[in-house]
């Protein structure tokens, strides 16, 4: 695997809603199988950036390139087929369907699998996230933590090159957070999927990521290793605060 190959690049992305500039000249590259954290204060523009990458929004300026193609403003279902999957801050699963059926949707919709292949892809993805034993459970009976894991499984089953995680740890307890960290690591290591991970649980990001990107007021203020980011004055002032003495 060529880990240094860039699969996603954002070039000078600007997103404006009327007079409000929410993203201002963002450049960002993600390499194959890289694990990148995306952090910043509330309202910094992280979710909006995901929405631009997945073509929910067409940026007012700039380009999104994925696997060598200009995909700026391409329809969201095409982005998924091309290999970008995502999870949501507010979990979105089909509540009356079982865990396995939910993940099969990812396999069919994202990877274009037929029923037999989709079932196999779903079982493998459920195994990766540790939900095999609950695969026949309707998702309305699952805990928040399991539904977050299920969203990851659904993304993995679509066979993406890049998975976008939007606050997968929100609302989880410490045990569930450790389990989630383990799943994120394995998703990258065992599947070779690049991950761009938005999170307010900064400790987890710093422990696990190769690189951390920091947004503040729609501007990228840092893009470096975790050790460099925690020592960055701009990041301390905008988001992290001074370390405890
Ligand atoms: N559709 C929209 N129309 C107008 N303003 C929007 C829209 N979507 C987002 N915004 C604004 O863009 C800014 C960035 O929001 P965004 O949700 O991307 O931030 P965030 O970094 O993901 O925040 P959080 O950490 O709270 O999830 C906010 O000021 C928000 O109110």
Short description:
By secondary structure, the chain is α/β, with parallel strands linked by helices. The chain has helices spanning 46-53, 76-82, 99-111, 115-129, 144-157, 174-191, 202-208, 226-230, 233-240; strands spanning 6-17, 20-31, 35-39, 61-66, 69-70, 84-86, 162-166, 194-198, 211-216, 219-224.
Number of helices: 9
Which class of secondary structure composition applies to the elements? alpha/beta
Tell me the overall shape: globular
As a whole number of angstroms, the C-alpha radius of gyration is 18 Å
**Could you state the order of secondary-structure elements as H and E?**
EEEHEEHEHHHEHEHEEHH
CATH topology category name: Rossmann fold
Number of strands: 10
CATH superfamily: P-loop containing nucleotide triphosphate hydrolases
Q: Provide the low-confidence segments as ranges.
A: none
Oligomer: single chain
CATH architecture: 3-Layer(aba) Sandwich
N→C terminal distance: 43 Å
Strand content: 25-35%
CATH class: Alpha Beta
Percent helix: 25-40%
Structural domain tally = 1
In this entry the ligands are: adenosine-5'-triphosphate
InterPro entries: AAA+_ATPase, ABC_AA/LPS_Transport, ABC_transporter-like_ATP-bd, BCA_ABC_TP_C, P-loop_NTPase
GO molecular function, one term: ATP binding
Keywords: ATP-binding, Nucleotide-binding, Transport
Protein name: ABC transporter ATP-binding protein
